[in-house]
Amino acid sequence: MDTPLREALRRRAGARCEYCHMPERFAPLRFQQDHVIAQKHRGPTALENLAWSCADCNAYKGSDLAGLDPATSQLERLFNPRTDRWEVHFQWNGAELAGTSAIGRVTVAVLQINREERVAVRRELMAADLYPAS
Length: 134
Prior knowledge:
Layout: H1 3-12, E1 32-35, E2 50-53, H2 55-61, E3 66-68, E4 75-77, H3 86-89, E5 90-93, E6 96-99, H4 102-110, H5 116-127
Antiparallel strand pairs: 1-2, 3-4, 5-6
């Protein structure tokens, strides 16, 4: 990805993951562009189809577009940072991210946002007032 596009993506996201809200400056690995709709599904490499993502969220999402809702076992699409409002689908419960909708629950599950080690890092950052719980 060219530098201007990468910088526009970072700026739009406020330098935090658009899925788990990890601030880029505290991430152990470099942030990545996520194709909201993967290239293999004909998603373009264009600002309107890209999300700024931490390495964990991007790796677990892969090219997935949907998953099974843990509450209903129904197929549901993943959160789309370009068309969905984060606060409608998620809320913080301490250092754990809770899905408040089917879309949120599926996204938390597929991206494994509440894996033990990820929660532990968020807990430490929150205790130091370095992780935005919003």
